Amino acid sequence: ESKREGRNRYSFFDHELDRRLKRKHTIETELRQALERNEIYMAYQSKNDIASGKIIGFEALMRWNSGVLGPVGPFEFIEVAEDIGVINELGEFALRQACIDLQEFQKFSDTTLKMAVNLSIRQLNDDSIVDMVAKGIEETGIDPSRLELEITESLLAENIDQILPRLERLLELGTALTIDDFGTGYSSLSYLTTFPVSTLKVDRAFVKDMVSNEGDATLTHTIITMAHALGMKVVAEGIEDEDQLAMLREQNCDIGQGYLFSKPLTQKEMEILIETHELPETTGFKSKHFRI
Ligand code: C2E
Ligand code: MG
Ligand code: MG
Ligand code: MG
């Protein structure tokens, strides 16, 4: 009896493992050709001034609509892209497209808008990153002070010595540096004073329960106070409801990002949002709370 059960269970796991390996293999194969097949595009999520609600910028988020697998999320494919060595190409595409689209978005707004692009650690492990960003700035004609580079805290913490010189050269180009997912990286805080970080982005994990969990509210408050004392701005990510927004406003958080303001949208949808402050019904998402 139990032997048979064991065998069945084994074959279940075997099957599951097999399925995952197959999917990973397909992702590896398909991802190599995704760019040239135009399956990769950038989505944009707004960053809003917390006090006024106004859109002040965007984060560019990569999307892959695979002909074979359908939509695959960045949590799944970015790591594969690093492993198979296509992250630099994808990163170059992201930066250029984001700079081009920012200039389109700007046509619909009187506020000087900024664009944030995510960089993965593999991209920063390579000297070519500096030339890539410099070339992107030059060829798209974007004002570099309107370009922000987002780097996840945990990755920065692990590799600070190697990537510091490269980050310095990126900053010399005139770009700004944002520490992403701040508070989850278990890092020493000393890099915040030795390095010109312009913005801290409080991880969604703290925002999620801050209204019901006093500890999380204390953490967001403390991060905001510390950042301001060091001359940095704070973005709160993952704001989904009015209560979180109200509390962050009380805590003097500068900038908000999250589904309450906008989901990641296509370039066309974002243009409509900036122009009309309303999303078309076709997006399946209508922000009732959107203001200004
Ligand atoms: P991230 O940079 O921390 O981006 C924020 C993630 O949170 C995005 O997921 C976004 O869609 C999601 N998000 C935003 N607001 C809310 C909200 O209110 N509620 C919830 N539940 N989620 C929200 P996404 O687009 O799946 O991206 C995941 C991660 O993939 C990003 O995390 C980033 O680390 C990475 N990534 C995305 N695009 C790129 C890229 O172009 N290059 C690189 N190197 N990494 C990228
Ligand atoms: Mg980010
Ligand atoms: Mg996060
Ligand atoms: Mg983040």
From TrEMBL:
Keywords: Membrane, Transmembrane, Transmembrane helix
Source organism (scientific name): Neptuniibacter caesariensis
Residue ranges constituting the EAL domain according to the UniProt record: 24-278
Location of this fragment in the whole protein: 597 to 888 of 888
Protein name stated in the entry: Sensory box/GGDEF family protein
